[in-house]
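tool=predict chain=A
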Amino acid sequence: MQLSPIDNVTLAFGAILGLAVARTLPSCVSYYAWFKSSGLDLANYRGYGHGACRLFGIIPAPFLSVRAMAVSGVAFLALIVAPAAPGLLPAPWRAPAYLAALAFYHLYFSQLYCEAHIGAHVTVLIPPALILLALSPALDESPGAPAEAAAFTCWLMKIILTSAYCGAGVCKITHSLRSLARGGSSWCTGSTLQAFIFEAMFLSTPRTHSSFGVPTPFSYTLQKLHLLYPRTLLMPASFVAVAFETFAPLMLLAPAHIASVPFALVGLKFHYGIALLQNIDFVSWWAAAYAFLLADPAAWSSGFLVCPVDGGAALGLAATVSAALETAPLRASLALAYVSIHVAATVLLRFFPDVEILPLSSFPMFGTPQNVFDRRLRKHFWLTHKPHATGTLKNYAFPFTRPHTVLPEEIAKLPFNYLLLSHGGSEKPELHSNVEVTPELQVCGATPCGDPPPPLPPFSHAPVAAFTGGARQDPEPWQPGAGHLRHRLVCRTGDSPRSRASQGGLRRRTSRRARSPAGRRHPTHRGRTRQR
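tool=predict ok
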């Protein structure tokens, strides 16, 4: 059976996204069962991003039961796989299937806004892809040239993708300029990546070789190496990252047979590097958007890197737009209108940083320059038994970020041990914990190396037995989180978090992990930490 040009795109898109959804669905359902009945203030909201916003800022998210949420996830998976499988659905049904998939995307992912793996900007490119596929003139085999119609859809997705990167790059540049004006550092000095990697090191050990299910062999060793050489390794990497993001739209000016596949390979490598060094998984979800580049008909019309006889003009952006408007004027016009709105939002939301209307975004993530040695910057250091895994509460859902977060008085309710120290900047230090804090940890956590220890602030402390039934917890390493890089930690990078935590920092007063009603350990009751 010979596949049409759009079939190659839908097959790649469905396979990549379907795999990501299938492997995370069980853990996400288990997480939602806990989250819905957790009693946390966070559980009173549904939506997207940190603030649980509405879809496109308009469509509210429903509150689903655990069963309805699971059914929505299964339906979403089926609706992205069915149109991709050749011959499984009649041609006229494929576009409605993608529109239905968008509806179930909203039902399913809006329940998971506080989950560690797939919240916020990680899945933000899925709705645009579904919209463009549903509006593709090539999808229902309309009369006209199928290659031009399929290439038109791919060009529009390339605009969406590259504008997202450009927005992130511009954000880093503008924040760097503001930081330099205040006497701070630029994003490109290497200090920001050093801070990110320092945080990531406390989410892994020498035995960590995967992150959110993505193989990341020798991640801890590579993190330690890069942490020690910020100018040699991280400064060049910072310049490359900012340049790649900021100038990504230039690939639209190059012929598709030269730019599409190489850009996709570089982009996937870029995100895999983030997973390897920062333990953040964008690659599983953004890879689906790269299906429009990897299977781009304009890139393969005469063979990869082989120039077509007409120089590629027939499958260029202008030619495919003209062909699509002639073949299906209504759908092509709607697709162009959506892309225009999406790109305009990327620009305009830069001036309204507090507005959240995902999937429309200025893509500001990780844009603020960091420096773990700058006392003027507020820093946060956290220890927890919460695992760094799919199906857990995200690491930035605690009282050091903007709402919605776990409230300080709710920390005692958490089904895992947690300690948060916030210090630096112009504000007073704050300490929140649901465990016993020993004098050794107070001295190590509250003072830079060589400084006399100031008195610690009051902290929220509740007996751990209050939520574990008084049982004794299995021996397990504490996982420090982001924050205060003391000289002792830099010089002793040979020490693992396990060895550092075992030197008397916290006295754990619990034992057996709490179990779910089904008798299985809940995924949030074991292991390590962190998210994007």
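Strands lie at 210-211, 214-215, 379-384, 418-423, 430-433, 436-437, 459-460, 472-473, 479-480, 506-507. Confidence is low (pLDDT under 50) at residues 447-532.
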